Amino acid sequence: MTRTELRTAGDVASWVAAGLCLRRVVSTGEADLATEEATIGQAILACASELGALPPAGVIADLAVLLGGARLPHAASVTGDDHLKAAVRAYEDDVLMRLASTPRFDDVLAAFAHLGSSLKPTAIALVVGAVCERSSFAGLSVSPATLRRALA
Asked: Shortest CA distance to 53 belongs to which of 89, 13, 4?
């Protein structure tokens, strides 16, 4: 299987923006927006450093926010064509709901809560990697250096 690699800053910035537009989990808790954005940025960079291939940036953001203690919102409507709506609904049901309803996820949340802040991005990357491996998701390759420039 051929894996796509994003090499230019423009391609990486477009990939991040498109992925974040489709994220489904938004924290409504105590964390302020700047802290949440910083956590997501660090998680995306950690994933690029730790994993051979990445899922969409929105998946990384959703898992980072879930690990931070956010709860899944009620399904929000999605604008777009029927294929996009079906894909988003499948992602909500087959990835997010399934993960959040797994009894082991409570153990992961407890362990994550006890980590120091410097270890959390790497822990998020490990969870993202496990989810991708479990689902046989191939992802795409992104240069960590190009990603850092795109997120700056």
From this structure: 4
Phi, psi of 7 (to 5 degrees): -115, -30
125 and 50 Cβ atoms separated by less than 8 Å: yes
Q: What is the pLDDT of residues 94-138, one digit of tens each?
A: 999 999 999 999 999 999 999 999 999 999 999 999 999 998 888
- What is the model's pLDDT at position 55? 95
Residue 138 to residues 2, 35, 119, Cα–Cα distance (Å):
9, 30, 25
∠ CA(11), CA(86), CA(79), 5° rounding? 70
pTM, entire model:
0.91
CB crowding 136-151: b at 16 or more within 10 Å, else e: eeebeebbeebbbebb
